[in-house]
Amino acid sequence: MSVALVQHASGLEPEDNRRLLGELTPGDVALVVLPEAFARDFGPPGSDVSGYAEPVDGPFGREVARVAGDRSTTVVAGMFELSADRDRPYNTLVVRGAATADYRKVHLYDSFGYRESDRLTAGPVEAVTVPLAGFTLGLMTCYDLRFPEQARALVDAGADVLVVPAAWVAGERKVEHWRTLVRARAIENTAYVVAVGQPGPRYSGHSMVVDPLGDVLVEAGEESAVLRATLDPSVLVEARRTNPSLLNRRR
């Protein structure tokens, strides 16, 4: 399965970000992944983003679907979705194209001095997976990466590719944490990980694809970039034969 990782910053104007979907989405790959909060950036820390929340079939979701259809691909991108609490929307991933799903971020970023839960509502604790091109995608968002039990729940639900859009805030040790955690989730689950972040300087960049034995297939720096990689099912099969750690579990 061919994938494209679009490491590009979203801005504060939703209309501009919708336009970028068409400009940045390639049409010669099976899966295109854009970052968390691509419909509209978070803004200054602690900002009220409720005024930018939409239903998943609102302007942003419809544009993701349109672009995916026009390019004959599947697109994953982040947005703020209306919830029952109108002041605290969901942080949601929409998947549109040959596959369709919605994932509401479970673990809110109440860490490193931030309080995402003050402005957003946590999604239900469930494993959201979707089949695509012979693989099964498992959806996570940014801070979810720090919770290995969520990745394992996705793999137990059949995922063999973990897709992780992010807006990984820059700072001391943050790139090292990101790279270590992305590789760890791949190695411990013998799964591909497709992790796409927003670029610097505010965020950490370093979008990457890691294979089921922990090899980095492609990695960006801090600047805007579009990366490509190919996920090979035979590599997945061989990795799980060589390291059958999922089968060897005793808990």
TrEMBL record:
Domain annotation CN hydrolase: ranges: 1-233
GO molecular function, one term: hydrolase activity
UniProt keyword annotations, A-Z: Hydrolase
PROSITE patterns: CN_HYDROLASE, UPF0012
Keyword Hydrolase: yes
Family: Belongs to the carbon-nitrogen hydrolase superfamily. NIT1/NIT2 family.
UniProt cross-references to PANTHER family, sorted A to Z: DEAMINATED GLUTATHIONE AMIDASE, NITRILASE-RELATED
Protein name per the record: Carbon-nitrogen hydrolase family protein
Organism, as annotated: Nocardioides euryhalodurans
Lineage: Bacteria, Bacillati, Actinomycetota, Actinomycetes, Propionibacteriales
